[in-house]
Amino acid sequence: MAEQPLSDVRVLDLTWHIAGPACAKFFADYGADVIKIERPDGGDPARNLGPFYQDDPHPEKSGLFLFLNTNKRSITLNLKSSTGKKLFKELVKDVDILVENFSPHVMPGLGLDYKTLEKINPKLVMTSISNFGQTGPYRDFKASEAIIYGMGGAMCSTGVGDCEPVKKGMNVIQHQGGYMAATATMMAFYGARVQGIGQHVDVSLMETQMAAIDRRMSELLAYEYNKELTPRMDIAGLLQYPYGIFPCKDGYVDVAGGFMFLNRIERVLKMALMETYGGANQFDESRREEFFGTIWYPWLMERTRKEIVEVCQEGRVLSAPINTTEDLVADPQFRERGFWTEAEHPVVGKLTYPGRPAACKELPWKIRRPAPLLGQHNEEVYTSLGYSKQDMVKLREGGII
Fold first, then answer.
1. Beta bridge partners of 203
2. Sign of the alpha-carbon torsion through 249, 323, 244, 273
3. Angle between the 172-195 and 145-152 helix axes, to the nearest 10 degrees?
């Protein structure tokens, strides 16, 4: 097996929740030795976030934690204690990268800011991920996924017509921000290796959305060039039809047809449509309702997703099934490419995980170990620093680890 691209890189992962662990996961899965530092009194709060394996709310069974922390080693350390800070500085001496995602005042408040740590390790790349960045009037503001999406994303144009703006589901910003932080960190890391100097990388989750391709960039450019504000648009009101998500016999399908491609829908349905529903008739609301009610929906409800997509592809109509998670795990495309992977965890057993973000045979991605148990590698890491088992007993009794 070829060596992984980051096999000679050491990382301290001082992160919790989602964005920071997602960043450090990237390094771990490509071979870096990532030491995750957790609080002795419960560890990363993500351990208490669902979904949980078999619906058992156990700190070692969080699906989110299990996914975000593969290939990492876990140690516990109380950074509020003087001994804990001393141990942390010893760890910093021999690492290449440190990632943290506390509020901007936390690391300076602990006396562990970049200027201090740089003196210990001049080549250190330290990445700080926060809601609004390390500087500016918003730097200490609390935030949530919805707040960041509203302030720095595209919520103003997400939703239906004149209704309230809505947010896209799940924690997209947290994951995307983590991956952006990993990209920026790698650039700083290779710069540090070439130039022999360290860097402090300041990642703002809001700014990662300001620069995102997810409609936001085009909307910012539209305003910059034309002072144009993008409205929320009811997709059902688009002239182009059939266009959108539609029910069928066994679920839902996404079909993008009609308007200039109405002749392709003719081939799919095997009936003449242009004279009645084409051209200017696409503006006629009564014709639209007639098409959907008497032709389109009855045709859909007699067919499965697979049948609809196959006949649409034959007619060169852009379409796809709306898949469930179960569908994706069984999908032949992802199975053939080896996207899904398995890992054996000491508590939950063997589970299937989403795999590598990109295939590269010579410098592979792989799961070497599952997400760690809380403090699983305390002895392994601290004895490597010269501490004995007796020392560790005292550290544990003192609440340090």
1. 129
2. negative
3. 70
Which of the four pLDDT bands, split at 50, 70 and 90, describes residue 276? confident
Q: Which residue has the tokens 């997810």?
A: 214
Reported as a single tens digit per residue, the pLDDT across 282-330 is 778 888 889 999 999 999 999 999 999 999 999 999 999 999 999 999 9
Nearest to 382 by CA among 54, 149, 86: 86
**Dihedral sign for Cα atoms in the order 86, 202, 374, 57:** positive
Q: Give residue-wise pLDDT tens across range 169-195.
A: 778 889 999 999 999 999 999 999 999
In terms of C-beta density within 10 A (0-12 exposed, 13-18 middle, 19 or more buried), how is residue 256 classed? middle
Return the closest-CA partner of residue 106 out of 80, 69, 127, 137. Answer: 80
**How many angstroms separate the CA atoms of 226 and 213, rounded?**
19
> Quick check: 57 and 40 in contact, CB under 8 A?
no
CA distance 22 to 183: 12
User: HEC profile for the chain?
Assistant: CCCCCCCCCEEEEECCCCHHHHHHHHHHHCCCEEEEEECCCCCCHHHHCCCEHHHCCCCCCEHHHHHHCCCEEEEECCCCCHHHHHHHHHHHCCCCEEEECCCCCHHHHCCCCHHHHHHHCCCCEEEEEECCCCCCCCCCCCCCHHHHHHHHCCHHHCCCCCCCCCCCCCCHHHHHHHHHHHHHHHHHHHHHHHHCCCEEEEEEHHHHHHCCCCCHHHHHHHHHHHCCCCCCCCHHHCCCCCEEEEEECCEEEEEECECCEHHHHHHHHCCCCHHHHCHHHHHCHHHHHHHHHHHHHHHHHCCCHHHHHHHHHHCCCEEEECCCHHHHHHCHHHHHCCCCEEEEECCCEEEEECCCCCCCCCCCCCCCCCCCCCCCCHHHHHHHCCCCHHHHHHHHHCCCC
State the Cα–Cα distance between residues 179 and 23, nearest whole angstrom.
5
Per-residue tokens: 312: 């649409």
In the chain, the largest separation of any two C-alpha atoms, in whole Å, equals 87
- pTM beyond 0.85: the answer is yes
Q: Torsion angle of alpha carbons 240, 242, 244, 249, nearest 10°?
A: 180
